[in-house]
Structures are given as C-alpha cells and as structure tokens.
Specification:
about 270 residues, alpha/beta, OB fold (Dihydrolipoamide Acetyltransferase, E2P), 2 domains, 7-stranded antiparallel beta sheet, 9 helices, 15 strands, about 25% strand
Length: about 270
C-alpha cells in the first residue's frame, strides 16, 4: 500500500527537525514533523508513512516507550532512533527494541541521508514481501542469519566458536538496503571493539559510506582481508565467506543479553 507521506520526524528540538526537513526535502522526500510522541500518535492515526525518525529523549513519552507502543498497535513502519545522549547503550537498546537504525546527534547531512536511504529501502523490501502471494505478513525478502547465530537488530551478527572467540559480520538485510557494496574498510588486528559502536565501513556504489555497528565488545584477533579486497562477498555470502572479524570477546554473556537469537526468526 502506498504511504501518504515519506517520513515522520518525532523530535522536540526545532534545530533537528529543520535539519531533517531540509536534507530530506532536497532529496524530493515529503516530511511531516511531530514535536511529541502524543502528536506523532495523532498523525499516525491520520496518515501512513514510509519511515519514522524518532528522538529518544522527549518530554511526554520517551522514544523507547513510543517504539513499544508502535509494536503493540502493530504499526510496522520502520523506525530510526536518534539522540544527543549518544551512548553505546542507547544504540544497542534501540536496535534490540525494534528500531532498524540509530543516528547519534549531532549528525551530518551525509550520515542522515545514508540512514534514511537504508530505512526507505527497508520499507520497500517489507512492502514487497507483504504483498507477495502466499507470504506471511512478517516475512521479508532477504536471507535470515543462521539459527545458531545472534544478531544486533538487523545490522550485524555474531557466531560463537569453540575456542572462545566469536566471528562477526553484517546481515543480508543490511547489505540489501544499501546500493551495492564497492568497498569495505576494516579496523586493524588488535583494535578493541565496543558493542553498538561502528566497527567497519561499507562504501556503496552511490558513494555513501555505511557504518556497521559491532554486535560485541572485544579485541580483534583476525580481520577478513578477503572481503575487503572483494566486497561482492557481502552480497554473495554475508554469513560465511563475507564475515568481517574474529574477536576475543571481553563480556560475551553480558553482550548476548542485548542480542536476538536468530533461531527466533524461524518461529
């Protein structure tokens, strides 16, 4: 079903809403603004949107409560969370709670644009899957991560190994929401990763850079140079050949509490 408008911005900071409207309208996108979760709820009862960008800290209801209300009311519009309290905990909680992305404030026009483009592509994939003959309402047109893996939202994944290390990578859905990977930038072996922080950058065919959030904290013991040399592996086989790092985790059991078991995606 065609949405009435492209984007609903839920934020009580005028400087933020003006920036989002300016950047998105320059891309030919239609934008509505709501100064509170209550105002957003009223607008969602009147119109449909392709994407919602929501602040975490608001005066009436915080962004996580608003996100939970959307889930309860079965409003499946993709949500990008944003906040000036840009802790890794907020990023992880946003993705674990059902948001498809997280943007820390202040953000640049390019950072906003990359997130918006991924969000709109997510919405397109969701609509295509929902309208497919015989498809479940919650089915999506991408390959889910293997059942024994864990995922951070729909951004990245983690697989445990017997040696006490974990392998991490980017999800097939994330890859499908960007415009064909042409480059992959990895950190060096020995670098420390933090759960919810960027651990790699994927450059797309349109020139935009997309940061990949790490699903785990720990030290990189091996980086997949093959995927950096041949980014097409991300599209061809993101869960095996296209892995990014082997990591020695620092707090694995704590990190797993904030990830979703991929076995639940098959229920």
């Amino acid at each position: 079903m065609k949405a009435d408008r492209d984007i609903l911005v839920v934020d009580d900071e005028d400087v933020i809403t003006h920036a989002v409207v300016r950047v998105c309208e320059a891309e030919g996108l239609s934008v509505d603004v709501a100064a509170s979760a209550t105002d957003a709820t009223v607008r969602l009862a009147q119109r449909t949107y392709r994407l919602i960008i929501c602040d975490v800290m608001m005066a009436d209801v915080d962004g996580f409560e608003f996100l939970a209300d959307l889930v309860q009311r079965q409003i499946r519009t993709p949500v990008i969370m944003s906040t000036g309290m840009s802790t890794m905990e907020n990023a992880v909680k946003s993705l674990y709670s059902g948001a498809i992305d997280f943007i820390p404030k202040p953000f640049t026009a390019d950072e906003l644009l990359t997130a918006v483009r991924r969000g709109l592509m997510y919405a397109k994939l969701q609509d295509a899957a929902s309208s497919a003959s015989g498809a479940r309402p919650d089915s999506m047109a991408w390959v889910p991560c293997p059942a024994k893996y864990y995922r951070l939202g729909y951004a990245s994944w983690l697989a445990e190994e017997r040696a006490g290390t974990v392998v991490i990578g980017v999800s097939d859905l994330f890859v499908k929401t960007i415009d064909a990977p042409t480059g992959v930038s990895l950190v060096a072996v020995g670098e420390e990763l933090v759960q919810g922080s960027p651990c790699a950058t994927i450059t797309a065919r349109d020139g935009l850079d997309h940061g990949v959030l790490s699903p785990v904290s720990g030290r990189v013991v091996e980086a997949n140079g093959a995927v950096a040399a041949a980014p097409a592996a991300l599209e061809r086989d993101p869960y095996f050949e296209g892995w990014l790092y082997r990591v020695l985790p620092s707090e694995l059991q704590y990190d797993l509490k904030h990830l979703t078991s991929c076995s639940s995606d098959r229920m």
